[in-house]
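User: I'll paste a sequence; please echo it back and then give the predicted structure.

Assistant: Echoing your sequence first, then the prediction.
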Amino acid sequence: MKQKILAIDDSKAIRFLLQTVLSRQFDVIAFPDGCSAMYYLSKKKLPDLFVIDPQLPDMENWELIEHLSSSGIFGHIPMIALSSLGEFETKSKSEQYDLASYFLKPFNPVTLLNEINLVLSKEKSNSIALKAS
């Protein structure tokens, strides 16, 4: 069974790109805004990873990421930001919210795919280590 990635970005082109590049290896569910994503999360199985644009049309910048990272339900799920904000802000907010990684737009989709595989393999190793202890 494929691991599930929840991609949230208001750009239709980026959602299409993510689904195209990642769907060979992952089950990709994409949403254009935070409310649609939260509705999905309230009804369905949790994803293995979030890929999120911090600037969404229905929320303040970083609001969804802040909500998910501080949540007892979603806080353990790794997140990768795809940001068109400046590097300084993106880096500092990514550290503040303990994101697994971040990419500035435009980004290389192959590099993103490699980073997702790295993040998910670390998560798998961590969960195996926790089960063993």
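The helical segments are 12-22, 34-43, 63-70, 87-96, 109-132. Residues 4-132 form a domain with the Rossmann fold fold (CATH 3.40.50.2300).
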